[in-house]
Amino acid sequence: MRGWLFIWLAVVFAVAPQAVRADDNRPLSLKIEQQDAANFTVTWKLPVNVEPRHMPRVSTDGCEERGRARTWSDPLGYWREEAWHCAQGIEAREIAIVYPLANPNLATIVRVFRAGAGDPQTILLQPQDGSFAIGTEEEASSGGGFLEFIKLGVEHIWIGIDHLLFVAGLVLIAAKPRRILVTITGFTLAHSVTLALAALDLVRLPIAAIEAVIALSIVFLAVEIVKGPRDTLTWRKPVVVASAFGLLHGFGFAAVLREIGLPQGSLVSSLLAFNIGIEIGQVVFAAGIFALLWLLGRTGERLAGQLPVQKLAGYAVGCLASMWMIERLSGI
């Protein structure tokens, strides 16, 4: 019955448009810098793994563009910068993000830098959010940066299809509640270490290579699931494999923090909050997977029929992850 759940997850991720992106975790980054009461510099970056034809327009009523917009590209992505003149200020205005086609499943991280203020305000948008409004400076300062970074962590893991599929594979291999708990804890501790090292810029590795290895980790689990339980390290001690690959997944988690930067005034607490958010999302997902496995088991083995469900699930997930890996290797 475990195989049915895994193959269902693979099919859902495969048919969803966002699942075929090289990396679902890199967001659209939007920075709004206040120059004075009425003038703002607005810069946004489309991640490099998304085709430049998807570059969105950002606009708001009551503000007019001054001068010529500037566009460029670099290894990080595709950029556009505009100068806005907002005679009545920019607060409380609805700012729209409009893609020429559909949103290619990009979350958006908005950073608002007020003139003379300290740490910037962070606004988090899901792919379905096509607009936002900037609150007053008082509202921003009372918003609670710690809670914002927890929310960012939860949202980051839930749009990280590759990370979730890896966690699902760990749950299927570990199988029993205690082994699942130990395995997920090992994965958590390992990626927490590298997340901190990368986010604090103490260790830096090429993100494209890391993303390719993350896809490879899913292929590795898929192969193990196809071959089934046997006397290998993965099946005997899944926590060891989870911890080893967790070190690499941590670098992937850190990518979003590099996009926005950690506030210097609360660097450690923001990093802790982001990691807590990731763990909340991860634990909820793992608990949901286990609950579904239990429910499927209660329905009886007759639902499985004569199909080699576990092998089919492994092949489906392995093919999907292999596609991700090829896409990511092509970007190195």
Automatic annotation (TrEMBL):
InterPro entries in UniProt: Put_HupE_UreJ
UniProt keyword list: Membrane, Signal, Transmembrane, Transmembrane helix
Transmembrane parts of this sequence: 157-175, 180-200, 206-226, 238-256, 276-297
Pfam family of the protein (one): HupE_UreJ_2
Signal peptide segment: 1-22
Name of the molecule in the record: HupE/UreJ family protein
